[in-house]
Amino acid sequence: MTRIILVFGSIAGSLVALFLILGMTLLAGSDGVGSEAIGYLGMLLSLSIIFIAIKRHRDINLGGVIRFWPALALGLGVAALAGVFYVTAWEIYFNATDRAFMDSYLNGQIAAREAAGATAAELAAFRDEMSAMMELYGNWWFRLPMTFIEIFPIGVLVSLISAALLRNRKLLPHRV
After folding, report:
1. What is the DSSP letter of 61?
2. Which of 12, 154, 156, 174 has the most neighbouring CB atoms within 10 Å?
3. For the residues 105-126, what does the mean pLDDT come to?
4. TM segments (predicted)?
């Protein structure tokens, strides 16, 4: 099972890292921030590899039968490894761009609030709140888990659904 996690986790992680870098460089808006919808769609597509990993393990290694908990464990392992790839890709991008993401993000959020008609006092309070967040985000010990938390819940969801579906041996049976 470890080999399956390493192989499929690396594939999913490489895909999600590619989506991250492409999204932040090619699809970034005028504020320098990529589309959240495209980002999460890329994560979901990349993490669909979990379904393939569980199915392959069920069909090739286990003779077509897998229980829910082992399937879930396999899926979570793939999701965790993909999350490590995602965090690594984000750290490379974040540091290669001289941490400009936070300034772009802050300016975009302030512009959006101004456009929505926020008062000067509300904008000042928001700036203070975001400055504290930016200071925290500048520390790797805060940034790494926060980045991992972006992707891992999606992996948990895909793992739960895949494990629930693939425990049924009649769903997409292995054909020899």
Report:
1. I
2. 12
3. 87
4. 37-54, 66-89, 140-166
Token pair listed for 35 = 């589309």
**Rounded average pLDDT over 115-131:** 89
pLDDT for res 30: 59
CB 144 within 8 A of CB 84: no
Per-residue pLDDT at 63: 92
Amino acid at 127: R
Pick 71 or 170 by higher pLDDT.
Answer: 71
Q: How many Å apart are CA 98 and CA 106, to the nearest integer?
A: 15
Residue written as token pair 């890709």: 89
Residue-wise pLDDT tens digits, 38-71: 888 999 999 999 999 999 999 999 999 999 999 9
> Would you state the structure tokens that stand for residue 114, as one six-digit string?
């101004």
Residue 86 tokens, joined:
């995602």
Q: Which residue has the tokens 């995602």?
A: 86
Taking alpha carbons only, the member of 115, 98, 104 closest to residue 29 is 104
Distances in Å between the alpha carbon of 61 and those of 1, 2, 64? Answer: 9, 12, 8
| Helices 120-137/140-166 angle, 10° precision | 80
Q: Three-state DSSP class for 97? A: coil
